[in-house]
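Course assignment 3, question 2. Fill in each field.
Student: A.L.
Task: Predict the tertiary structure for the chain below.
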Amino acid sequence: MKTWSEMEEIQPLASKIIKNSIRKGRISHAYLLQGERGTGKTDIALIIAKVLFCERLNGSETEPCHECRNCKRISSHNHPDVHWIEPDGMSIKKEQVEKLQKEFTYSGLESNQKVYIIKDADTLTVNASNRILKFLEEPSRQTTAIMLTENSQSILPTIRSRCQVIDLKPLNPLLFKAQLEENGLDAGTASLMSALTNNLHDAIEWNKGEWFAEARKLVVQLIEILSTSPDDVYIFIHSHLIPHFKDRNDQERGLDLILLAFKDILYYHLGNERDLVFFDSNHVLLEKAAMTFSQDRLMDILNAILSAKRKLKQNVQPTLVFEQLTLQMKR
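Answer field:
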């Protein structure tokens, strides 16, 4: 999605708010775009940046041309006055913000307008957050901050209060599932992908890649070991699961897959086979797992997985997160 017309189909309210600001010449000095993965945060940030730099945009127009030199460079993250900050490892560090501050002491290379976009802003360390706060407290009329987050509760209240907060609504999973099927995914895989992401490109790429197929296989093996020989589960997670879930994105997707698998076991318990997304209703492991895990225990496990997801967001060491989760699932 690169135009407001496309964005309005999935985020009509957010698009309307920002377009009205553009028409009135009141673009905020700082935006906080908050919403789930795939809801269009990066796309909106790109359009706002293009609006500020587009060579062909006039007056109260809201749609950048997307074809001029500036628009193309912004699309490829190569514009010298549009700065991107992303997590270095598990967090955005003070040194990254210090480097940005140094850049902002210089005049813009091609104009006095500058934009900085912070992805996963919830991963800012405390020191990095305090340095960003200084930018927001002393805004320049020609500086625009755009912060993107899936976890707005981890953003300092003092930062939130200085931004225009734009809430992005979750996408309709049924419409997304139909879109995936139109792109060649079978119904079962489309259901699983629509439960994991709202990003069409990600879903198609995951389906093609070996990582996802192996991850799904490992989750099945995890549940089988917990059901048949739980004493072996620690060896399994250290020799197979943790090495496969290497970086933060892998770890988050891995926990999402584990969560969906255990939700399916609970649905099987409740007789809601039509709601299964991880397992096929005829999967041999479902009945075995349903006999192993009571409904109360499944609820405890689901809560433990959600807690593990929160800990990852809080930058708890991933190996410790998976070890603690395994202990809770093994009980």
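Instructor remarks: The beta strands are 30-34, 82-85, 114-118, 143-149, 164-167. The longest strand covers residues 143-149.
Grade: pending
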